Amino acid sequence: MPSFWDNVPQGKWNIVMDKPTTHPTEAYVSKVSEFNDKLFTEPDVVVTSIELYFRPWLYTDVKTTDVLGGMKLSYDNGYEICHGIKPKSNSTKNEQLIKAYKIRLTRGELIHTIDVAFGWCINRLTFYTSKGRQLGPFGGKGGDVHKYKSPANGQFGHFHCFSGREIMTYEMLALTHLQIGWAHFETSDANEDQMAGSENNITTDQARSNV
């Protein structure tokens, strides 16, 4: 947990889920399973790294776009959550085509905005952090871009988890109906002055961590 949260006034953590992405594939493919990480993670833990695994959309000799096939989220309490496919040492020919990307967040760095490009599946993801970094885009071409933002301003609203579906297409898993969960710290109006002081502490802590 970032040290600046020690200075946050009394309030209530909550996880707010965005609307899921929609895809025409649902009428043509079989759903393998659904996942909802909100049920397995506490709101006050922080994502420290994200691994994304993209696979080709069509397995032919013609070069096509990549779609999201799997992911792995790691939290600051040591908890890890995996969905879909992931690279293996003894992989099949199709699995050897998987492209892996890893995002590492620094101490106190939080994701406040995510761009998701999707059509038949999830094509591309881009992350924006509290330290002004753009991470990505990761993935392939195609899809329409949709921007998802934390429902709270400042450091107290940030990316926390995903929910979605695993489907089977062209003999490999893909992730669809991706839903972004945001951790949101709710405070009363009476605590606004304390909150402003805490935000000043955030800036100080971040400056120290960058030294």
UniProtKB/TrEMBL annotation:
It comes from the Eukaryota. Gene3D superfamilies: Jacalin-like lectin domain. Residues 93-167 form the Jacalin-type lectin domain. This is Jacalin-type lectin domain-containing protein. It comes from Mizuhopecten yessoensis.
